Here is the input.
Amino acid sequence: MANPPPNLADILRTLSALAPQSQQEDQQAPSNPSNPYHFSAPIPQPRPHFEVPTRTQPPPPVAAAPIQDASKITDWPTALRCVMRSVASNERVVGEIRKLIQTQHEHETQWCAGRRELAMKIEARKVGQKKVDEVLRAVGGQVTETPTSDGAEELRAFDGKVYRAQCQMVGEMGGKLQRIGIPFFGTRPELISC
Here is the structure.
């Protein structure tokens, strides 16, 4: 049968008994020792009324929970427990995850701004072409009636590039998360049932 955990009162009693008694007496530097209510007067400390143990036993070492292999985790509660115990307490891992989140956010912002810019260029091109056609009609020039592209093909090509970049980013981030031991990234295929 395992030993019960030590009582907090017992621990505090043991620690106060081990503290040097002369430390409290050396810290006296009152500027007005005759007035007990002066802010610099020492605060009287109660003395413990117990016997000092002659020999204290060190507390039994607390066994750390074994770190579970993240590639074998298949349910949410176990994954959450794993993250809270092993990952959240490791500053290096937390920093890497924050960096991954920041990188993903930066890429998404760039892709969104790039698409918006491309759409504005296409719209400006359409407006410019209409103005050129109006000027040509006004001076009697010949306007080409060939239909200009509406920009849908350019947007589709841009979206394809973004999709490929996203897939590459997801693969790289998944690999990093697997290497640092985040559950559900790198779960063994034989453990997954459909």
About this structure: The first helix runs from residue 8 to 18.
